[in-house]
């Protein structure tokens, strides 16, 4: 019997309509880690997953980055990231799955652009911020078990508070100083938000600049200032990351991946991939699947 061709990476949605966009699981030693879905194979989600570990060790990978973290630490898995995580020792803490729609867009943008490169964030049990997060999640757990009609709004408000604390920790780690954002940071965050939504359609910096109501040169100067890379490089890096995921986790041909990513000319796509990774897509696939 012929092997069934894998044409997409498994993607999971929040399945429980009663969760109202938030699903909380308490992690206790001796109990099985349960989430919104099976985590037995690499997959991605359409929602966020906040992991707060007080004790224990978690291993796996997120978008090809190996993870082996021992508590206490904080971690967010972002929508679209391919991940496979498994406890290495019994864990205590929380897993919170939450829909992007319940988070204020500005806070969501800040988390997306500031936290990805800083996670996991290791903590000390005596850190005031970590203790505050523990108290808030404990309160959330109590509310979560109550038969109150308004509990979901209260839980969403507490989760927002937790995310603001995490954003503040990331701000301190990054050394960006004041939480008040300047205009270049706003442009960067708005550009990345558009990129995550439209990377398969928009390949020209001018298309993003038009939506941001700024000149292409201004956008490019801003990205150079904040990331050291041109706008075109950032666009191509994001497309190549998605190509890596598809090469690793699906059986799509290079041509099919090229078309899916919005490159009608596969030769052009191959040239971009090789410029970013130093090898062709086929050689990359062979290196990760051998």
Automatic annotation (TrEMBL):
<dbReference type="InterPro" id="IPR037923">
    <property type="entry name" value="HTH-like"/>
</dbReference>
<dbReference type="InterPro" id="IPR018060">
    <property type="entry name" value="HTH_AraC"/>
</dbReference>
<dbReference type="GO" id="GO:0003700">
    <property type="term" value="F:DNA-binding transcription factor activity"/>
</dbReference>
<protein>
    <submittedName>
        <fullName>AraC-type DNA-binding protein</fullName>
    </submittedName>
</protein>
<dbReference type="Pfam" id="PF12833">
    <property type="entry name" value="HTH_18"/>
</dbReference>
<feature type="domain" description="HTH araC/xylS-type">
    <location>
        <begin position="189"/>
        <end position="287"/>
    </location>
</feature>
<dbReference type="GO" id="GO:0043565">
    <property type="term" value="F:sequence-specific DNA binding"/>
</dbReference>
<keyword id="KW-0805">Transcription regulation</keyword>
<dbReference type="InterPro" id="IPR020449">
    <property type="entry name" value="Tscrpt_reg_AraC-type_HTH"/>
</dbReference>
<dbReference type="InterPro" id="IPR003313">
    <property type="entry name" value="AraC-bd"/>
</dbReference>
<keyword id="KW-0238">DNA-binding</keyword>
<dbReference type="Pfam" id="PF02311">
    <property type="entry name" value="AraC_binding"/>
</dbReference>
<dbReference type="InterPro" id="IPR009057">
    <property type="entry name" value="Homeodomain-like_sf"/>
</dbReference>
<keyword id="KW-0804">Transcription</keyword>
